[in-house]
Every structure is written in structure tokens, then in C-alpha cells.
Specification:
3 copies of one chain form a homotrimer.
Chain A: H1 3-31, H2 36-41, E1 43-50, E2 57-59, H3 60-69, E3 75-78, E4 81-90, E5 93-106, E6 111-126, E7 129-144
Chain lengths: ~160, ~160, ~160
Amino acid sequence: MSGDDLAARVQRLEDIEEIRQLKARYCAYCDAGYDADGIASLYTTDAVWDSGRTFGRAEGREGIRAHFQGASSRLSIARHQIMNPIIDVDGDEATGEWLLFQPCTDTRDDSAAWLAAGYRDRYRRVDGRWLIAETLIDVAFFAPYDKGWAEQRFLTGREP
Amino acid sequence: MSGDDLAARVQRLEDIEEIRQLKARYCAYCDAGYDADGIASLYTTDAVWDSGRTFGRAEGREGIRAHFQGASSRLSIARHQIMNPIIDVDGDEATGEWLLFQPCTDTRDDSAAWLAAGYRDRYRRVDGRWLIAETLIDVAFFAPYDKGWAEQRFLTGREP
Amino acid sequence: MSGDDLAARVQRLEDIEEIRQLKARYCAYCDAGYDADGIASLYTTDAVWDSGRTFGRAEGREGIRAHFQGASSRLSIARHQIMNPIIDVDGDEATGEWLLFQPCTDTRDDSAAWLAAGYRDRYRRVDGRWLIAETLIDVAFFAPYDKGWAEQRFLTGREP
């Protein structure tokens, strides 16, 4: 094998690791009271963040910043626990799928809830650094703690 | 260090990453209403899937396909959230340990439940692609949501 | 790129993978009834394990061993499910951040509980093998199952 081929394989593994940590940093900013500046810094200027009707949609880095500035007033506790990454790198573009399992507290009535969702992300390398270009969130359930997802799959007003 | 040694080390890292994604794909097929064809495509022809008495045992790719064809009628929601991988590669064979934490809905009475288990897998490289050769599932608890695992560790009829 | 540079990049990826598995082994020993000898074997002789007031603090490998010898009498079930690693390697030192989401059973009254916490670890390479040099645990909630974290954020006597 030529050294160039091997270098490309190492680069791919580094890219996957950098993207995993990028997503973990997104979650850490969310868990830290939704640090809007931190979150925005991880997205491309033309990025899209779209959760459907659950939490709405934001466009562009500035739109995403504005969207998250209000988020901690909606969820006081929100643990963004992510698992099952499937990351596929193609040059300076990449895709990622994750599971999210998030215990949280809904500030509307100070009640505990479970959010289970899938993330489908696109990533782009910009100036040598991976950023998130798109986050699509597919909510499986968003259930009140006192009832569970079988009895009430979605919080009132949070139906997808 | 010789280039061959370095290539072998990169290969090992690629193998671990491919196995992690293989297991995540297994989980994604399970979460998608137990896609039996998708699940079967990830197993070797002589594979074993064994959960003990909880969900039974299946042998061979075709046995595994048949086993999962009925699964979505038993669990309507099942989020296969996996964590804590310990993957050990030895040539074309590998082993993996994982934790599973699965919120699910039991269709027998449309009730929510928590399944916590350990996976012990064996993997084999076949024609250059990693497949699952064995899945053993060790159930720690499979508890009704309304009681929790301390009050009732296993669903009725799902004792291990 | 020189072969030496590439070898250093591969080494960094191997270090990250070894540290991930080190942490997973720590969790596996904890889940196996808090195997105190196993846990101690993963720490440096001068290590610190500090959970604040929740479970106290231990110093040194022997102090950590002694600390965990009593742990299974406090938590009979404890699933150490870890996610969101951010690992940063610098030569023979490294840091790691993780999320922990732990369903457990409190033996004081045989009740189920949820522990959500952040780990901040330091690791050190000793004789070619990565060990844990420091574990700091920041508890977000430690809530009784029957109430959830919004109604009662911390178990009685387990306030941080």
C-alpha cells in the first residue's frame, strides 16, 4: 500500500472521531442551559436545524443562535444523551445518524418528561474544521414521566 | 516502524469502527419495526441469536429472519440504545460487549417497559465485510414502566 | 507526509480507543457488583475518585479499592451507561468527559432510582498502558423512580 492511501484511511478515521466529538460538544452546550453562542459556533453559516413541529425550525447560524437563546426557558433540565452513531464521510461532506434519549424537565408545569428521537445530520468541513450543516430530528416519543410513552406518547402541545 | 505494521494498526481501527457501525445498523433495523430482512443481512449464515427465555433463540440466518418477522407484533416501540462497547479484533474474528437500554412498548397490554441487558457478540469477516456470528443477550431487568425494576424486575411471562 | 507523522496520528487514534475501552471496563466492573479489585486495577496508584457528597471521595488506588468494597451494599443494581465521550490526548496525559445515565436500586429501601451525572476524567499512560488518574462526578439528578427528577431531584441523604 502506498503511504498516500494509508494517509487517506487515517484521515477518514480522524474525520469520524472529530465528528463524534463535534456532536458531543453540541450536546454539552445544550446541557449547559442551551449555550446559544456555543451551539451556533458548531454550525455552518447556512445550516438548518429542524425538529418539525416539536421545537420548530431554524435557518442559518444566526437563526440557530436566536432559536436556542430561548430554549432553556422551555426545558430547564435536558440531558442530551446520544448513542448509536453511523457516520459516513465523503471528502469534505459527511452524514451522521444518532439516537437521542433525553430526560428533561418541561418548564410549562415543571414536569419531568422523556424525549426519544433520531438525529439525521449533515456535516461539512470548512477551513479544515468539521461543522454541522443540517440537523433533522425525528421524534419517536416525548412522553410525560408520570404516564410513560405507552399511555401518552407526546406531551400536550408537543405533538409532531 | 515499517509501513506494513502501520497498515495493520490502521486496519484494526477500521475494523473496530466497522463493527460499531454494524451493531448500530442492527439496532436501526430493530427500531424500524424489526426489519427482518435487514437484520438477517447482518448475520452470518450459521449465526446464533440467543436471548435465553426472554425472547428465545434462533439459529442460522434464515432462523434469525423468521424469528424477527414476528417481533414487531410483540414490541411496538423498541429503542435499541447501545453503549459501552468493548471490541476486540483478532484477524477475521472479533468479539464485542455492549450495554443495551431499551424503552419499549409491550403489545400484550400496550404497556411501557424498560429492558436493560448486556450483549455479548462474536463477529466474523466474510468476503471482506464484518458480519455478526453470535449474539448472546443477558437481561438485567425487563420491568414494567408503572412499577420500575425494584418493585418488579421482570414482566410477567418474560422472566429469564 | 512522513511516516513518523502518520504513526503519531495513528497512535492518537489508538489512545482514544484504548481510553474508551478503559472507561467501559470501569463501568463493567461497577455493574458486576462493584468488583473493587477490578476497579482499582484501572486507576493509578495516586488516583483520586471524587463524587462530592453523593458517594464521597477516595484517594489512591488502595483508597479507591476500599471505597468500592462497600458499594454493592449501597446499590444492588447499578447500570453504568456512558455516552458522549470527548477525549483529548496530550502525550502520556489525557482528559475525558462523559455523560452517565444510571438506573439503579437503592438498598436502603429497595427502591429504584435514576442517576444522571457528568464524568470528568484524567488519564495517564503508565508503562505503556492507559490508567485513570482522576474521576470527578458532577451529579445532575439522583431521583427516586416513583417521583422523577422534577418532583424530587435528589434522594434523601444523597443531596450533592
